[in-house]
Amino acid sequence: MLIKNDDASLTKEVTDPQVFKARRKIIQAAIALGATASVSAAANEKKAYQHVPIGPYSKKLQVTDYEDAINYTNFYEFSTNKKDSTVLAQALKISPWQVLIEGEVDKPGLYDFEDILKKVNLEERIYRFRCVEAWSMVVPWIGFPLHQLIKQVQPTSRAKFVEFTTVLQPDVMPGLRYSSLKWPYTEGLRMDEAMHPLTLMATGMYDEKLPKQNGAPLRLVVPWKYGFKSIKSIIKIRFLENMPSTAWNTSAPGEYGFYANVNPAVPHPRWSQARERVLGASIFTPKRKTEKFNGYGEQVAALYSGMNLKKYY
Ligand SMILES: Nc1nc2c(c(=O)[nH]1)N[C@H]1C(S)=C(S)[C@@H](COP(=O)(O)O)O[C@H]1N2
Ligand SMILES: [Mo]
């Protein structure tokens, strides 16, 4: 895993990847020794993740158990049920994988996923993640900052927005038969959001390749926005002069805005966004207070200075 980051402040608080790798080796060795050893290895793994600093962000939170993060997923192309999507997504075909880059860009083209990986630096980022349905988790992602890819394809001066599109595989995606959303799933970011150092293209999590249900082989992670902005299994990135419509924005414009910045002060029309249920916590654990920009305000609030975030929800 190559670690090179042009923003030192971002790397200093994430788990040291060398420590991470060493731990992984111990676990693999333990698994080789048999079941008893692997049980203690799993305990070991959990311990290593507990109460780590969350990205470039001082508070310590417990990392969500791997099993919870991979079994409670939103992937509507497969199912709107958070367990079924996990099982059904195993049929997703992810190899070979190509990403089409088009629109306002000097180097458009169909890029092999493997070639993209050769030109970026993967690192681990532990981010808090907040779903619009008011649950939250903390995930150690592996990925590269999106700006590394954007700089290589050279957007033109007219590029003000970036649109992302998820793969369509009707033969394995039963959810496409329902118009729960407008297919294919699309999302978008303003150019400065896309270029922000926190915006990650994830290719893995918990030091493993990205599970299919979590958006293999390549998904977006925008930690200060609600989960639906973090589009999975991306096959197209398009640079645009105008704001694109998005899957959620099209299906329910009054509920899901383009910006979707986590904001406890702006309720979803059907429920409050002030608190969140921590995924995996016991039922006796009180909900935690949601923070504006999901706690990443210091890093991102400047992107929205002068904008009325009640209007641009
Ligand atoms: N293509 C696609 N991407 C998607 C979704 C989806 O249904 N399809 N769901 C979104 C929503 S609502 C959330 S909360 C996150 C969930 O990510 P996770 O399942 O990895 O936790 O994925 C987002 N990305
Ligand atoms: Mo979500």
What is the CATH class name?
A: Alpha Beta
CATH topology: Sulfite Oxidase, Chain A, domain 2
Order of helices and strands: HHHEEHHEEHEEHEEHEEEEHEEH
Low-confidence stretches: 1-44
Task: Please report the distance between the alpha carbons of the first and last residues.
Answer: 37 Å
The CATH homologous superfamily name equals Oxidoreductase, molybdopterin-binding domain
H/I helix tally: 10
Total E-strand runs: 14
**What is the residue-mean pLDDT, rounded to a whole number?**
86
Shape: globular
What is the helix content? 10-25%
For the largest beta-sheet, the strand count, sense and barrel status come to: 7 strands, mixed
CATH architecture verdict: Alpha-Beta Complex
Instruction: Tell me which ligands are bound.
Output: ligand MTE, molybdenum atom
- The total tally of domains equals 1
Radius of gyration: 19 Å
Helix/strand-derived category reads: alpha+beta
What share of residues are in beta strands? 15-25%
Task: Provide tags for this entry.
binds molybdenum atom, 22% strand, binds the ligand Nc1nc2c(c(=O)[nH]1)N[C@H]1C(S)=C(S)[C@@H](COP(=O)(O)O)O[C@H]1N2, five-stranded mixed sheet, 10 helices
Q: What does this protein look like?
A:
There is one protein chain. The chain has helices at residues 8-11, 17-33, 35-49, 66-71, 84-88, 113-118, 146-153, 191-195, 247-251, 297-300, and strands at residues 52-53, 60-61, 98-103, 109-112, 123-130, 135-145, 161-166, 186-190, 200-205, 208-209, 219-221, 234-240, 275-278, 288-289. By secondary structure, the protein is an alpha+beta fold. Strands 5, 6, 9, 10, 11, 13 and 14 form a seven-stranded mixed beta sheet that branches. A five-stranded mixed beta sheet has the order 4-3-12-7-8. Strands 1-2 form a two-stranded antiparallel ribbon. β5 (123-130) and β6 form a beta hairpin. The two termini are 37 Å apart. The model is unreliable at 1-44 (pLDDT under 50). Bound molecules: the ligand Nc1nc2c(c(=O)[nH]1)N[C@H]1C(S)=C(S)[C@@H](COP(=O)(O)O)O[C@H]1N2 and molybdenum atom.
